[in-house]
Amino acid sequence: MTEHGTNSPTIAPAHVAFARVGHSFYPGILVLFTAVLMISNISATKGVAFFGDTEFALGPLQILPIITDGGFFLFPLAYILGDVLSEVYGFAATRRAVLFGFGAVALSALCFWLTGLLPPADFYENQDSFDAVLGVVPRMLLAGLAGYLVGQLLNSYVLVRIKARTQEKHLWARLIGSTVVGEFADTLIFCAIAAGAIGITTWSDFVNFVVVGFLWKTLVEIVVLPVTYRVIAYVKSREPSYG
Protein backbone atom coordinates (compact mmCIF):
# COMPACT_ATOMS: atom_id res chain seq x y z
CA MET A 1 0.00 0.00 0.00
CA THR A 2 1.40 3.43 -0.90
CA GLU A 3 0.84 6.59 1.11
CA HIS A 4 -2.01 7.46 -1.28
CA GLY A 5 -3.70 4.20 -0.55
CA THR A 6 -3.01 2.49 -3.89
CA ASN A 7 -1.24 -0.79 -4.40
CA SER A 8 2.20 -0.59 -6.00
CA PRO A 9 3.85 -3.64 -7.59
CA THR A 10 7.15 -4.80 -6.14
CA ILE A 11 10.03 -3.99 -8.49
CA ALA A 12 12.70 -6.70 -8.61
CA PRO A 13 16.27 -5.41 -8.56
CA ALA A 14 17.90 -5.45 -11.96
CA HIS A 15 20.51 -8.17 -12.56
CA VAL A 16 24.02 -6.76 -12.82
CA ALA A 17 26.51 -9.01 -14.57
CA PHE A 18 30.15 -9.32 -13.57
CA ALA A 19 32.88 -11.75 -14.60
CA ARG A 20 34.36 -13.85 -11.82
CA VAL A 21 37.94 -13.09 -10.88
CA GLY A 22 39.91 -16.30 -10.48
CA HIS A 23 42.20 -17.13 -7.60
CA SER A 24 45.21 -17.88 -9.83
CA PHE A 25 48.53 -16.14 -9.24
CA TYR A 26 48.98 -15.87 -13.01
CA PRO A 27 47.50 -12.35 -13.51
CA GLY A 28 49.65 -10.89 -10.74
CA ILE A 29 52.85 -12.49 -12.05
CA LEU A 30 51.95 -11.33 -15.57
CA VAL A 31 51.58 -7.72 -14.38
CA LEU A 32 54.87 -7.85 -12.46
CA PHE A 33 56.62 -9.48 -15.42
CA THR A 34 55.43 -6.73 -17.78
CA ALA A 35 56.29 -3.97 -15.32
CA VAL A 36 59.84 -5.29 -14.89
CA LEU A 37 60.36 -5.27 -18.66
CA MET A 38 59.12 -1.70 -19.05
CA ILE A 39 61.13 -0.38 -16.09
CA SER A 40 64.29 -2.20 -17.16
CA ASN A 41 64.17 -0.66 -20.64
CA ILE A 42 64.12 2.83 -19.10
CA SER A 43 66.78 1.97 -16.52
CA ALA A 44 69.00 0.59 -19.29
CA THR A 45 69.49 4.10 -20.71
CA LYS A 46 72.03 4.77 -17.93
CA GLY A 47 75.53 3.40 -18.41
CA VAL A 48 77.04 1.87 -15.28
CA ALA A 49 80.68 1.01 -14.47
CA PHE A 50 81.75 -1.17 -11.53
CA PHE A 51 85.40 -1.11 -10.39
CA GLY A 52 86.09 1.68 -12.84
CA ASP A 53 89.62 2.23 -11.51
CA THR A 54 90.62 -1.41 -11.89
CA GLU A 55 91.67 -3.24 -15.03
CA PHE A 56 91.70 -7.03 -15.17
CA ALA A 57 91.61 -9.32 -18.19
CA LEU A 58 91.69 -13.04 -18.91
CA GLY A 59 93.23 -13.38 -22.33
CA PRO A 60 91.10 -11.32 -24.73
CA LEU A 61 88.26 -10.93 -22.19
CA GLN A 62 88.16 -7.74 -20.15
CA ILE A 63 86.70 -8.71 -16.77
CA LEU A 64 87.19 -5.41 -14.94
CA PRO A 65 85.93 -2.79 -15.07
CA ILE A 66 82.43 -4.21 -15.49
CA ILE A 67 80.60 -1.99 -17.96
CA THR A 68 76.85 -2.52 -18.04
CA ASP A 69 73.62 -0.55 -17.86
CA GLY A 70 71.14 0.44 -15.17
CA GLY A 71 68.82 -2.43 -16.03
CA PHE A 72 71.39 -5.13 -15.26
CA PHE A 73 69.61 -6.29 -12.09
CA LEU A 74 66.14 -6.17 -13.63
CA PHE A 75 66.69 -8.26 -16.76
CA PRO A 76 67.57 -11.37 -14.69
CA LEU A 77 64.44 -10.75 -12.61
CA ALA A 78 62.40 -10.93 -15.83
CA TYR A 79 63.94 -14.34 -16.53
CA ILE A 80 63.23 -15.49 -12.97
CA LEU A 81 59.57 -14.55 -13.39
CA GLY A 82 59.63 -16.28 -16.78
CA ASP A 83 60.94 -19.41 -15.05
CA VAL A 84 58.11 -19.27 -12.51
CA LEU A 85 55.52 -18.89 -15.26
CA SER A 86 57.00 -21.73 -17.31
CA GLU A 87 57.41 -24.11 -14.39
CA VAL A 88 53.94 -23.57 -12.96
CA TYR A 89 51.74 -22.63 -15.94
CA GLY A 90 53.49 -24.12 -18.98
CA PHE A 91 54.73 -22.84 -22.32
CA ALA A 92 51.44 -21.56 -23.75
CA ALA A 93 50.71 -19.36 -20.74
CA THR A 94 54.29 -18.07 -20.68
CA ARG A 95 54.21 -17.31 -24.39
CA ARG A 96 51.08 -15.24 -23.79
CA ALA A 97 52.87 -13.33 -21.02
CA VAL A 98 55.92 -12.76 -23.24
CA LEU A 99 53.74 -11.37 -26.03
CA PHE A 100 51.90 -9.10 -23.57
CA GLY A 101 55.27 -7.83 -22.35
CA PHE A 102 56.46 -7.33 -25.93
CA GLY A 103 53.34 -5.30 -26.72
CA ALA A 104 53.66 -3.21 -23.55
CA VAL A 105 57.31 -2.31 -24.24
CA ALA A 106 56.55 -1.47 -27.87
CA LEU A 107 53.57 0.67 -26.81
CA SER A 108 55.61 2.53 -24.20
CA ALA A 109 58.36 3.21 -26.76
CA LEU A 110 55.76 4.55 -29.22
CA CYS A 111 54.25 6.81 -26.55
CA PHE A 112 57.66 8.16 -25.49
CA TRP A 113 58.56 8.83 -29.13
CA LEU A 114 55.30 10.68 -29.80
CA THR A 115 55.64 12.65 -26.56
CA GLY A 116 59.16 13.67 -27.54
CA LEU A 117 57.84 15.03 -30.84
CA LEU A 118 55.26 17.27 -29.14
CA PRO A 119 56.29 20.95 -29.05
CA PRO A 120 57.53 21.83 -25.54
CA ALA A 121 55.88 24.63 -23.58
CA ASP A 122 57.86 27.82 -23.02
CA PHE A 123 58.35 26.98 -19.34
CA TYR A 124 59.50 23.40 -20.00
CA GLU A 125 63.30 23.29 -19.89
CA ASN A 126 63.89 19.53 -19.86
CA GLN A 127 63.31 18.55 -23.47
CA ASP A 128 66.92 17.46 -24.02
CA SER A 129 66.89 15.42 -20.80
CA PHE A 130 63.58 13.81 -21.79
CA ASP A 131 64.96 12.85 -25.19
CA ALA A 132 68.20 11.53 -23.66
CA VAL A 133 66.41 9.21 -21.20
CA LEU A 134 63.17 8.29 -22.94
CA GLY A 135 63.92 9.05 -26.56
CA VAL A 136 63.64 6.06 -28.87
CA VAL A 137 66.73 4.91 -30.76
CA PRO A 138 65.19 2.56 -33.38
CA ARG A 139 68.20 0.25 -33.56
CA MET A 140 68.43 -0.11 -29.77
CA LEU A 141 64.69 -0.68 -29.50
CA LEU A 142 64.83 -3.37 -32.19
CA ALA A 143 67.80 -5.00 -30.44
CA GLY A 144 66.06 -5.06 -27.07
CA LEU A 145 62.73 -6.34 -28.36
CA ALA A 146 64.26 -9.01 -30.62
CA GLY A 147 66.61 -10.29 -27.91
CA TYR A 148 63.86 -10.33 -25.31
CA LEU A 149 61.33 -12.10 -27.53
CA VAL A 150 63.65 -14.87 -28.72
CA GLY A 151 65.42 -15.27 -25.37
CA GLN A 152 62.28 -15.51 -23.28
CA LEU A 153 60.54 -17.93 -25.63
CA LEU A 154 63.62 -20.18 -25.77
CA ASN A 155 63.97 -19.99 -21.98
CA SER A 156 60.38 -21.16 -21.53
CA TYR A 157 60.53 -23.82 -24.26
CA VAL A 158 63.72 -25.40 -22.92
CA LEU A 159 62.44 -25.41 -19.33
CA VAL A 160 59.17 -27.07 -20.30
CA ARG A 161 60.95 -29.65 -22.49
CA ILE A 162 63.31 -30.59 -19.67
CA LYS A 163 60.37 -30.81 -17.26
CA ALA A 164 58.62 -33.23 -19.61
CA ARG A 165 61.54 -35.61 -18.98
CA THR A 166 62.29 -34.92 -15.32
CA GLN A 167 58.73 -34.26 -14.07
CA GLU A 168 58.99 -32.66 -10.61
CA LYS A 169 62.61 -33.72 -10.10
CA HIS A 170 65.81 -31.78 -10.79
CA LEU A 171 64.30 -28.30 -10.81
CA TRP A 172 67.81 -26.83 -10.69
CA ALA A 173 68.68 -28.52 -14.01
CA ARG A 174 65.81 -26.98 -15.93
CA LEU A 175 66.23 -23.56 -14.31
CA ILE A 176 69.93 -23.36 -15.11
CA GLY A 177 69.63 -25.10 -18.49
CA SER A 178 66.85 -22.82 -19.70
CA THR A 179 68.68 -19.75 -18.39
CA VAL A 180 71.87 -20.63 -20.27
CA VAL A 181 70.01 -21.06 -23.56
CA GLY A 182 67.67 -18.08 -23.14
CA GLU A 183 70.24 -15.61 -21.82
CA PHE A 184 72.79 -16.55 -24.48
CA ALA A 185 70.28 -16.07 -27.30
CA ASP A 186 69.05 -12.80 -25.77
CA THR A 187 72.57 -11.42 -25.29
CA LEU A 188 73.84 -12.53 -28.71
CA ILE A 189 70.88 -11.07 -30.62
CA PHE A 190 70.92 -7.81 -28.67
CA CYS A 191 74.66 -7.33 -29.08
CA ALA A 192 74.62 -8.26 -32.78
CA ILE A 193 72.01 -5.60 -33.54
CA ALA A 194 73.09 -2.93 -31.06
CA ALA A 195 76.89 -3.18 -31.32
CA GLY A 196 77.28 -0.59 -34.07
CA ALA A 197 74.95 1.84 -32.33
CA ILE A 198 77.03 1.87 -29.14
CA GLY A 199 80.43 2.13 -30.82
CA ILE A 200 81.60 -1.51 -30.94
CA THR A 201 83.44 -1.99 -34.23
CA THR A 202 85.94 -4.85 -33.73
CA TRP A 203 85.38 -8.58 -33.35
CA SER A 204 87.34 -8.71 -30.11
CA ASP A 205 85.20 -5.99 -28.52
CA PHE A 206 82.05 -7.70 -29.79
CA VAL A 207 83.03 -11.10 -28.37
CA ASN A 208 83.95 -9.46 -25.06
CA PHE A 209 80.60 -7.65 -25.00
CA VAL A 210 78.66 -10.88 -25.59
CA VAL A 211 80.63 -13.17 -23.29
CA VAL A 212 80.88 -10.82 -20.31
CA GLY A 213 77.23 -9.79 -20.62
CA PHE A 214 76.08 -13.41 -20.84
CA LEU A 215 78.22 -14.59 -17.92
CA TRP A 216 77.15 -11.67 -15.74
CA LYS A 217 73.41 -12.17 -16.32
CA THR A 218 73.66 -15.95 -15.91
CA LEU A 219 75.69 -15.61 -12.71
CA VAL A 220 73.06 -13.30 -11.19
CA GLU A 221 70.33 -15.85 -11.88
CA ILE A 222 72.38 -18.68 -10.37
CA VAL A 223 73.04 -16.61 -7.23
CA VAL A 224 69.31 -15.98 -6.71
CA LEU A 225 68.39 -19.61 -7.51
CA PRO A 226 67.32 -20.28 -3.87
CA VAL A 227 64.85 -17.39 -4.14
CA THR A 228 63.45 -18.80 -7.40
CA TYR A 229 63.05 -22.18 -5.70
CA ARG A 230 61.06 -20.65 -2.86
CA VAL A 231 58.82 -18.59 -5.14
CA ILE A 232 58.03 -21.60 -7.33
CA ALA A 233 57.28 -23.78 -4.30
CA TYR A 234 55.02 -21.07 -2.82
CA VAL A 235 53.02 -20.61 -6.03
CA LYS A 236 52.69 -24.35 -6.63
CA SER A 237 51.41 -24.99 -3.10
CA ARG A 238 48.79 -22.27 -3.35
CA GLU A 239 47.74 -22.63 -6.97
CA PRO A 240 44.46 -24.60 -6.87
CA SER A 241 44.78 -25.90 -10.42
CA TYR A 242 48.41 -27.03 -10.29
CA GLY A 243 48.95 -30.71 -11.01
Give a written overview of the molecule.
With 243 residues, the chain is mainly alpha-helical. It contains seven helices and four strands. It has helices at residues 26-43, 75-117, 127-134, 138-166, 171-194, 203-223, 225-238, and strands at 47-50, 56-58, 61-64, 66-69. The strands form two sheets. The chain has a two-stranded antiparallel ribbon. A two-stranded antiparallel sheet has the order 2-3. Helix 2 (75-117) packs antiparallel against helix 4 (138-166). The termini are far apart.
Shape: flat
Largest sheet: 2 strands, antiparallel
- Strand/helix succession: HEEEEHHHHHH
- The count of helical stretches stands at 7
- Let me know the average pLDDT: 84
**How do the strands line up in the largest sheet?**
1-4
N-to-C span: 59 Å
Helix content percent band: 55-70%
Q: Outline the low-pLDDT stretches.
A: none
Count the E strands: 4
Residue share in β-strands: 5-15%
Radius of gyration: 24 Å
Alpha-beta classification: mainly alpha
Task: Put the structure in a nutshell.
This protein has 7 helices and 4 strands.
Question: Secondary-structure map with pairings?
Answer:
Layout: H1 26-43, E1 47-50, E2 56-58, E3 61-64, E4 66-69, H2 75-117, H3 127-134, H4 138-166, H5 171-194, H6 203-223, H7 225-238
Antiparallel strand pairs: 1-4, 2-3
Helix pairs in contact: 1-2, 2-3, 2-4, 2-6, 2-7, 4-5, 5-6
Observed structural traits:
243 residues, mainly alpha, two-stranded antiparallel sheet, flat
